[in-house]
């Protein structure tokens, strides 16, 4: 919970920076439908959401999901994908990576030595690079086209996601770029998700309130726990289970499993 608060504070700074630049407007966030997940399975939580979507579950929409770490957002999204015929997940990660690729390539081609310099991250340059990212249907699927003739960059995120966009030029500079481009990326994401929703797709967007507050959608859910201690219990169980799995090896007998769990718990307490 402390880590969540720290992350939220950092994101808030990024959003306020975007508002100061005029990239994002100051808004009153749309309300979230609170779902207490205490005592509910991920299947039950997903079914509640689908019921609240109504006909939009088949005709397309944008579903925004927030909640503390450990409330089951990722698992719930997986369940929704399995239950909805036309569901896709959206991540801002590849937008940040695409923007970083353009910024790093610009430095490589225009600065002495070609080294990355955060001084190039001006509002004017960022606006120009964002204009080089086009979202739409390409080759019969939704994708992002990165087209920058003057930089010699022309490709699609779906083709570069695990290669170019994960290369060292992007990976080493993405934190610096992300720090000052929250607003640009959120604005791009909102338009992209809206386009897919209007095309009949159910877009599942999981994130922090500070950023997804700016995603246009009336379908917003916040997973909460009436007893937040359960988050700690779940994390503890995950750590004990992971250590027990290492200790047990190939043995499958019940007694061996019980002994491994007990030994794992003892080791973690000592640490």
Q: Give the class from helix and strand content and strand pairing.
A: alpha/beta
Measured by DSSP, the beta-strand proportion falls in 15-25%
- Average per-residue pLDDT, rounded, comes to 91
Low-confidence stretches: none
Strand order within the widest sheet?
A: 1-8-2-7-3
What's the count of strands?
8
Number of helices: 13
List SSEs in N-to-C order. Answer: HEHHEHEHHEEEHHHHEHEHH
**Sheet with the most strands, sense and barrel status:** 5 strands, parallel
Radius of gyration over all CA atoms, rounded? 22 Å
Shape: globular
List the helices and strands and how they pair.
Layout: H1 2-21, E1 33-36, H2 42-53, H3 56-59, E2 61-67, H4 73-83, E3 87-90, H5 93-110, H6 123-130, E4 133-138, E5 141-148, E6 153-156, H7 157-160, H8 168-171, H9 174-180, H10 182-198, E7 202-206, H11 209-212, E8 219-224, H12 229-248, H13 254-270
Parallel strand pairs: 1-8, 2-7, 2-8, 3-7
Antiparallel strand pairs: 4-5, 5-6
Helix pairs in contact: 2-4, 12-13
Describe the protein in words:
The chain is of the alpha/beta class and 271 residues long. It folds into 3 domains: 30-90 and 193-224, no CATH class; 93-189; 229-270, no CATH class. Helix content is 54%, strand content 16%. It is built from 13 helices and 8 strands. The chain has helices at 2-21, 42-53, 56-59, 73-83, 93-110, 123-130, 157-160, 168-171, 174-180, 182-198, 209-212, 229-248, 254-270, and strands at 33-36, 61-67, 87-90, 133-138, 141-148, 153-156, 202-206, 219-224. The strands form 2 sheets. A 5-stranded parallel beta sheet has the order 1-8-2-7-3. A 3-stranded antiparallel beta sheet has the order 4-5-6. The longest helix has 20 residues, at 2-21. The mean pLDDT is 91.
């Amino acid at each position: 919970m402390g880590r969540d608060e720290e992350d939220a504070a950092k994101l808030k700074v990024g959003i306020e920076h975007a508002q100061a630049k005029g990239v994002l407007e100051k808004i009153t966030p749309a309300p979230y439908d609170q779902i207490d997940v205490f005592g509910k399975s991920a299947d039950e939580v997903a079914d509640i959401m689908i019921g609240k979507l109504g006909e939009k579950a088949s005709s397309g929409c944008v579903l925004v999901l927030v909640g503390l770490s450990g409330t089951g957002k990722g698992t719930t999204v997986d369940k929704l994908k399995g239950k909805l015929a036309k569901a896709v997940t959206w991540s801002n990660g590849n937008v940040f990576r695409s923007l970083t690729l353009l910024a790093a390539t610009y430095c490589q081609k225009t600065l002495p030595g070609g080294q990355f310099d955060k001084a190039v991250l001006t509002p004017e340059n960022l606006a120009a690079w964002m204009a080089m990212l086009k979202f739409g249907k390409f080759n019969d699927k939704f994708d992002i086209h990165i087209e920058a003739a003057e930089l010699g960059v022309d490709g699609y995120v779906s083709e570069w996601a695990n290669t170019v966009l994960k290369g060292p030029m992007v990976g080493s500079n993405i934190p610096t770029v992300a720090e000052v481009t929250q607003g640009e990326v959120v604005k791009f994401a909102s338009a992209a998700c809206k386009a897919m929703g209007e095309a009949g797709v159910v877009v599942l967007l999981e994130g922090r309130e500070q950023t997804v507050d700016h995603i246009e959608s009336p379908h917003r859910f916040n997973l909460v726990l009436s007893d937040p201690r359960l988050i700690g219990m779940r994390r503890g169980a995950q750590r004990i289970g992971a250590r027990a799995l290492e200790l047990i090896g190939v043995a499958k007998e019940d007694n061996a499993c019980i002994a491994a769990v007990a030994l794992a718990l003892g080791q973690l307490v000592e640490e």
